[in-house]
Write a structure and sequence with these properties.
Oligomer: single chain
Structural class: alpha/beta
Strand order of the largest sheet: 3-2-4-5-7-6
CATH architecture of the largest domain: 3-Layer(aba) Sandwich
Distance between the termini: 74 Å
Shape: globular
CATH topology of the largest domain: Rossmann fold
Length: about 550
């Protein structure tokens, strides 16, 4: 043990927890931490705006299952980063945000950039605290890792007073978290099997952040041996190989209406790791919390979620991957052999039909772009996106074949896709990373292109440019037909902008040119942008602008 300043103590604790990369925007409030990082061996990915840094950290947490680490300064730094904290909360992602704080002796005077972080982050973080004493830094950081990864994973926020970080202390690092023994009881597995065996029209819905390729493989074996159809919850399509004959599609924004009808008609639904939310249930119309009209089996890692929205007939608090590993070994009861063959085959057929491209107007067509990507990208390629109608084409037409290949915000945050792609490219430098973005979505965080160039990230960004905030325009036309207000965009030349940052950029105006443009972008060895010039009439994956207006009586 040596006398060290608080920044060095904090960094040593991060090393004890196995942290190898952090994301940050520097600030004078945590200079001691920057000094501690200097020769620590921990990579510090310096970002251009705190929202992008927090989203990169959140994506890191999604990919690794370990807390993504982000450092930002006080006041505006923290408020900018709050967008990424909200993503981590709704997506159940482990993350720790460290926020610089004013000197302890200046509190309660509304000092420069003073914020009460407990009040500010109290509803969007699992735990918010301020470290008052330098000697207790290891204790707080150790607890932050435990909280962020326990039960339902999520974000933790720790405020770091500037004078506390610069003070000296002698205190050892605390060893990393100990493994938690598996706790699933055989009786719980048997209870789920018995409940499923009573079904005539069963459906398995998978989701949540606690998943792995092993879990995906176990799920495929379980679904196949029992003959069950499986649906993925919103933006969790990588939880099962979409080519598997038991995969039925995704429940979420822009879902296949026939899959929604199948959820409504199901008499037994096994929610496996997924929260029962409005996106999966079309605003609670497919499953009414007051009267579900079906047997609900809910397996979730946090007991506080069981019964919070829908009362389960059988609720089990355990990590979903443990339950699916057990169910994959569960013998199939003789009485159900072949019972659901037609039900499951019909669900798969509806998925296959939904995947047939519906033509959209224009010389460049998103359904064909996404279909090409699905057919040509390697199985381990990572696809990221933010929010916007463009994402509906990805959800509908792309087949995710391995776990960890989909990075997307269930919170619906615009601007997420590009920072997530930078984080993914840094974490997996040998893999293809593609960010699908809208023209509005991309402009929220495209300044992180210089972050990508500086740190060697090489994602390919495919920008769907239709000159508008498409999702809002869609709703606007449905409710206030023809009264276009606040949704038109004046856009830059995205390809030229990419080149100005030191990346590769191309504009595609004809469908037949996309494949070659993509190959050139992938081979450039730098961050790349392919701008698709789309017809504004191609507003959604399911309807044109004119069709939406006509349906609204315009």
């Amino acid at each position: 043990m040596t006398n060290r300043h608080g920044g060095a103590i904090l960094v040593d604790q991060l090393k004890a927890e196995g942290v190898t990369r952090v994301f940050s925007v520097p600030g004078e409030s945590f200079l001691a931490v920057l000094d501690g990082l200097y020769d620590s061996g921990i990579a510090n990915v310096v970002c251009r705006q705190e929202g992008g840094a927090a989203m990169m950290a959140e994506a890191h947490g999604k990919m690794t299952g370990e807390p993504g680490i982000c450092f930002v300064t006080r006041g505006p730094g923290a408020t900018n980063a709050s967008a990424g904290v909200h993503v981590a909360k709704q997506d159940s992602t482990p993350m720790i945000l460290f926020v610089g704080q004013i000197d302890r002796t200046h509190r309660d005077r509304e000092a420069f950039q003073e914020v009460d972080y407990r009040a500010m982050f109290g509803t969007v973080a699992k735990w918010v605290a301020e470290i008052e004493t330098t000697e207790r830094i290891p204790e707080y950081v150790s607890r932050a890792f435990h909280v962020a990864t326990s039960g339902r994973p999520g974000p933790v926020v720790l405020a770091l007073p500037e004078d506390m970080l610069s003070a000296l202390a002698e205190v050892p690092a605390i060893p990393a978290r100990a493994p938690v023994p598996k706790a699933l009881a055989p009786a719980q597995r048997h209870a789920v099997a018995r409940a499923l065996a009573l079904a005539e029209r069963p459906l398995v819905v998978v989701g949540g952040s606690l998943w792995s390729q092993t879990a995906a493989d176990d799920l495929a074996r379980f679904a196949e041996s029992w003959g069950l159809p499986v649906a993925a919850s919103f933006r969790r399509q990588g939880h099962m190989d979409n080519d598997h004959p038991n995969y039925a599609g995704d429940l979420g924004v822009g879902m296949n209406p026939k899959l929604g009808a199948r959820l409504r008609a199901a008499d037994v639904v096994l929610w496996l790791g997924a929260r029962i939310g409005d996106n999966q249930t079309a605003g609670y119309t497919l499953v009414d919390p007051a009267a579900p009209g079906k047997t609900v089996i809910h397996v979730y890692p946090d007991a506080s979620e069981l019964g919070r929205v829908v009362r389960p007939d059988l609720g089990i608090a355990c990590p979903p991957e443990e339950m699916i590993a057990a169910l994959a070994q569960q013998p199939v009861p003789d009485e159900i052999a072949g019972r659901w063959t037609d039900w499951t085959a019909a669900a798969r057929a509806e998925y296959e039909a939904w995947q047939q491209p519906k033509p959209t107007p224009g010389a460049v067509r998103m359904e064909e772009v996404v279909t090409w990507l699905s057919e040509n990208l390697p199985e381990d390629a990572i696809l990221t996106n933010g929010a916007g109608n463009y994402a509906a084409f990805l959800h509908r037409y792309y087949r995710f074949r391995r776990h960890g290949t989909q990075l997307a915000p269930t919170s619906g945050s615009m601007g997420y896709g590009f920072p997530a792609a930078v984080s993914a490219s840094l974490q997996h430098p040998g893999r293809v990373v593609v960010c699908m973005a809208g023209d509005g979505c991309f402009q929220m965080t495209l300044n992180e292109m210089s972050t990508a160039v500086q740190h060697g990230a090489t994602p390919v960004v495919v920008v769907a440019n239709n000159g508008q905030y498409g999702t809002i325009r869609m709703h606007q036309e449905r409710h206030y037909t023809g009264r276009v207000s606040g949704t038109a965009l004046a856009n830059p030349d995205f390809a030229a902008l990419a080149r100005a940052y030191g990346g590769h950029g191309e504009v595609v105006t004809r469908q037949e040119d996309f494949a070659d443009a993509f190959d050139r972008a992938l081979g450039s060895g730098v961050v790349s942008v392919i701008e698709l010039r789309l017809d504004p009439e191609a507003l959604t994956a399911g309807a044109t602008l004119s069709e939406i207006r006509a349906a609204a009586g315009g």
